[in-house]
Amino acid sequence: MKIVTLTENTSVSEEYGNEHGLSLYIETETHQLLFDVGASSLFAENAENWGLIFQKWITWSSAMVTMIMVVV
Hints:
Strand 2 and strand 3 (32-36) form a beta hairpin. The chain is mainly β and 72 residues long. The radius of gyration is 12 Å and the shape is globular. It has one helix at residues 42-50, and strands at 2-7, 23-27, 32-36, 56-61, 66-71. The longest helix has 9 residues, at 42-50.
């Protein structure tokens, strides 16, 4: 299992943006998920810096949480 923090309140490098919230990219042998409770789409910019390319997203949303299954 691989878990990459895409966005959170702090940043370890100026290369990655930070904001209030949390976005995680989670990869297992069979699934790729994006868990996002960030305030914007900053996770997408940080994902690009990590070299993660999302070709197709299947989205489930509520008022507080967005879960995205990534299909690559």
